[in-house]
Amino acid sequence: MSRADSSDTAKGPPPLVTTSSSAVTKKAVGKRKRDSEIRLVPDDQRIFKSQRFYFFPNSDKHPARKLRIAKAIEFGATWESEFNESVTHIVADKSMDYGLLLKYLKKDALPPHIALVSENYPAECITFCRLLDPRQPQFKVRGYDLSAAAPPISSASSDRSLKLKPAPDSVRARQPETPVQDDRVPESPPTVSTEDGEGEEDRNPSAPPIESTAEFDAALKQARDLRHVPLDMEEDSGSRPTSSDGPATDDERPPAGSELDRRKKGKAQNYQAKFQCMHKHTGSDENPNVGTIAILQQMAEYYNQVGDEWRTRAYRKAISTLRNHPTKVWTREEALALPQIGGRLASKIEEIAYTNRLRRLDNAKAEPQDQVLQTFMQVYGAGFAQASKWVNAGYTTLDELVEKAELTPNQRIGIDHYADFNSRIPRAEVEQHGNAVRKALHKIDPAFDVIVGGSYRRGAKDSGDIDCIITRPNTDLPHIRQVVLDQLVPKLFAKRFLMAELAATSRDDGSKWHGASCIAGSSSSTGIWRRIDLLLVPSDELGAALIYFTGNDIFNRSLRLLASTKGMRLNQRGLYKDVIRGKGREKLSEGTLVEGRDEKRIFEVLGVPWRPPEHRIC
DNA sequence: CAACAGAAGCT
DNA sequence: AGCTTC
DNA sequence: GTTG
Ligand SMILES: O=c1ccn([C@H]2C[C@H](O)[C@@H](COP(=O)(O)OP(=O)(O)OP(=O)(O)O)O2)c(=O)[nH]1
Ligand SMILES: [Mg+2]
User: Fold this and answer.
1) Annotation: CATH topology of A423-618
2) Which of A115, A398, A507, A553 is most buried (CB neighbours < 10 A)?
3) How would you class A130 by CB atoms within 10 Å of its CB: exposed for 0-12, middle for 13-18, buried for 19 or more?
4) A90-101: b or e for each residue (b if 16 or more CB lie within 10 Å)?
5) Listed residue (A99, A13, A1, A88) closest to A50, CA to CA
6) What CA–CA distances, in Å, run from A170 to A55, A60, A76, A190, A207?
7) Region Disordered: what ranges (predicted)?
8) For chain A, which residues make up each domain, given as ranges?
9) Tens of pLDDT, residues A548-584
């Protein structure tokens, strides 16, 4: 249970605070303290001069809202750390409503001189370079009736359903009439290909779960949410390109009918349950909780867009367990019994089950802004922070970014090859790229090995990129690095196979190279730029490197979490034991190497039953 | 109440 | 040190 | 958001 924030739907107000101690100067015109200075725009542009803003929630803890507050200050606003009568504007998150605000302020109504506006207000004003009329419908806050002198409190309180947590604000700026026009994205939306998760059936009847399974499971649970939940939208396909970020779709499936009887209900059942990750959800029909899941997914998506990483994870965890739950969950108690579902989610689940919807989300999501943000975040080299800035700056298309925004070289490449980088690579083409690398390398020194890892090694029918492990028996890293950097890469560039360098390892340390490659010739894939990753690994580390580079990411995290619970540490070089961790799991000693060379032995030491790459999908 | 994997490269 | 990616 |  979390008590940390007492606030939620019913009771407490959102955790504002900010000010109190020292976080912010009382009436900050700029908050000193941590980001020391916010540079104000020239005096004549300070459209918010002498305006006093109070945000709701009023904390700058979350990344996106922080940005917005900073922006307002930049344009002359004073940020009131506490509510008082001098406030001129209250800027409320989309997820908030009038009722919540009143409740928090302990008031029956808002003084008429204070303007209540929604979160997009500051950005709009900045866009138009002037103070806009707060009464415009676009700035309306739910439950706040502008026409009524004293808006009834009831309006809002009535809609106590699932409220969004005071989250970091969602970034928004001017509203584009035209969403993002990506001319760069031909037909295939940069989106995720709908995945057909099918690679699930675990075979492994033979390997009954050993004890450690439980631990691994636990670890796995913690980790799996991280992955972008694969939403399978079979039917609703066309409708939404969102799916958050993931190119996560693997549909890796073991070639043959791996389906084996799942005999042994007992442990096998248990075992199975834990590894739901390799679960297929093939039919959209078969899960009784689809409705609930859909809504929770929207919530997760919302929090994701708002930059609330951990809450997003929590939602995804819950979604994951719901997805594997065979029966429809109706009540709070029922939900509470499930792993990764606590009191808050349990209540929400119950409510969703009955009402089948979530009102809070209505205004907070699916706004055009979200689409823009999504689009920007899919630019290679741009993450949440950068995409938010762009959105806040008012950009709405990729073209606009190219024209007006400052881009890093990688971001420029990311935009120029936006469609390419966001499309899946057919398995056969992955092979071609791998072969090109291998062939060139063998010409330099036939003793080298190239292993294509990533989703390819897991058996996926298509991949997001090409992950190559480059190694050589009895060879150390410096030598491998030298060959790769001094010979292989230049050679592949000369052959016009490599087209760009996105991240290179420095000459004397480092072990990876990231760039873009392209197959010449005349196939359907000709001319498409692909991201390619080279991982340079000395022979002693091959096992650990294989685990790392084979993934999937969720699997890795779960394994690493498990290791840490055993006083060990797993990374791409090896498994270490007797790791000393200080406060906050901080690594104090490297620990001593246990195993790095043999993939299987790492599993053994960790007490995890071996699973082939195809089964490492969580 | 802190942890939720662990690391590398770029800006 | 923050951001982004693997 | 949930968990140890
Ligand atoms: O956050 C991450 C991302 C990736 N990896 C590992 C696992 C993953 O399998 C491998 C390659 O990364 P990539 O992003 O290419 O993922 P993938 O599994 O190959 O999927 P995709 O088909 O999108 O390339 O690196 C991690 O450990 N953590
Ligand atoms: Mg990959």
Assistant:
1) Beta Polymerase; domain 2 (3.30.460)
2) A398
3) exposed
4) bbbbbbbbbbbb
5) A88
6) 13, 12, 21, 22, 47
7) 1-36, 150-210, 229-269
8) 1-180, 290-363, 379-421, 423-618
9) 999 998 899 989 999 998 999 999 999 999 887 777 6
Substitution candidate for ligand 1 out of A467, A532, A537 with most atoms within 8 A of CB: A467
Of 3.40.1350.10, 3.30.190.30, 3.40.50.10190, 3.40.50.300, the CATH number of A1-180 is 3.40.50.10190
Cβ of A230 less than 6 Å from ligand 1: no
Which pLDDT tens digit goes with each residue over A292-345?
Answer: 999 998 898 888 888 899 999 899 889 888 988 899 999 999 999 998 899 999
**Cβ(A348)–Cβ(A361) under 8 Å?**
no
Q: Residue A1: what pLDDT? A: 28
In DSSP terms, which residues pair with A576 in a beta bridge?
A569, A593
User: CA-to-C1' distance for A304 and B3, Å?
Assistant: 19
Q: What share of chain A is helix, strand, coil (3-state, %, to 5)?
A: 40, 10, 50
Q: Å from A512 (CA) to B9 (C1')? A: 9
CATH class of A290-363: mainly alpha
| A window 468-527: Cβ near strand D (< 7 A) | none
What is the reported pTM? 0.73
User: Tens of pLDDT along A138-170?
Assistant: 888 888 988 764 443 333 333 344 555 554 433
Distance A141 CA to D1 C1' (A): 25
With tokens 């949440």, the residue in question is A384
